[in-house]
Amino acid sequence: MHPASSFAAFRGWFLPFLAILVLSTGGWATTLRVVAWNIEWFPGQQRLDATHEMERGHMERVQKRLKEMAPDIFLASEIRDWKSFEELVSVVPDLRVHVVSSFRDRDTGGLWPQQLAIASRLPVRAAWFEPWRPTMWGNPRGFSFAALEDPGSNGLILVYSLHLKSNRSFNEEMAQTNFRHRNESIRQLLLHIEEMETIVFAGQVTGVIVGGDINTCHDGRFGDRVVEMMVEAGFRNTWAETPREERLTWRGSDRFPPTTFDYIFVRGLPSGRARMMEVAPDESDHHAVGLLLQR
């Protein structure tokens, strides 16, 4: 499907909800649009030597697409820095940057070109990023986090942006290490969520959203338990009821077929099914994921 026609279909899916504030039993209800998107080394699209013209072109294409998506909560991965992300989200009214990670290469000390970011239209109570705690296998990256004020209550929505360990490997031992990396990351994530719910924001949390590129899927293709661990912890896999052919968020390559790498998990909040928002190849090698939350 052409990206333009794909967006038209997604926009049609949103039309019944375009009256953002609707009167409901018990008060005003708010429909929130959540988007998670790996924007492929933004800006520059995998080119560390990208020229200024290349970066500007990527910026303008992605800005146009993001303006069409119009998220209320935006979880982004593979972002170069705060400045780039702030310029990107400036095209969406009232969308404000809350956090952009600054993870560093453990060998060189230089900043990674693939950071994790969160922006939203909601008031933010707190926001930060954390690296995964080191393990015997290393464990790169980490997560970005924001505690957003819930428009449907006086509580908080905890939001996490993820980009888990890739599947790059040269043998079975390396592949198994990748699986352990991802499982350990989710174990640490769930511990962080528990601490936020029971200690830092005790009695205030109304729901949790976790989204991003998890580099695995629930189709049995990989040897980790990322999706199962999230579901066992009470999160809803918003792709669970969607046929595989309708959620191939990663385009694939000459070596590997397309698959589902990009997810949004939700706990404690009413939501529909996730929808894939197709984008052009010169915007990203990942399609975005959209989800509606009713508050």
Description:
By secondary structure, the chain is an alpha+beta fold. The protein has a single domain, classed as Deoxyribonuclease I, Chain A. 25% of the residues lie in helices and 30% in strands. The chain has five helices and 13 strands. It has helices spanning 3-14, 52-69, 82-89, 172-200, 226-232, and strands spanning 21-24, 27-42, 73-79, 96-100, 115-120, 124-131, 142-149, 156-163, 205-213, 236-237, 262-267, 275-277, 288-294. The strands form two sheets. Strands 1, 2, 3, 4, 5, 12 and 13 form a seven-stranded mixed β-sheet that branches. Strands 6-7-8-9-11-10 form a six-stranded mixed β-sheet, with helices on one face. The longest helix has 29 residues, at 172-200.
Question: For this structure, what is the CATH homologous superfamily?
Answer: Endonuclease/exonuclease/phosphatase
> Based on DSSP secondary structure assignment, what is the total number of beta strands?
13
Order of helices and strands: HEEHEHEEEEEHEHEEEE
* SS field, number of helical segments: 5
Radius of gyration: 18 Å
The dominant shape is globular
C-alpha termini separation = 32 Å
Name the helicity range.
25-40%
CATH class: Alpha Beta
Structural class: alpha+beta
What composes the largest sheet?
Answer: 7 strands, mixed
Multimeric organization: single chain
CATH architecture: 4-Layer Sandwich
Average pLDDT: 89
CATH topology (level 3) name: Deoxyribonuclease I, Chain A
Low-pLDDT regions? 1-28
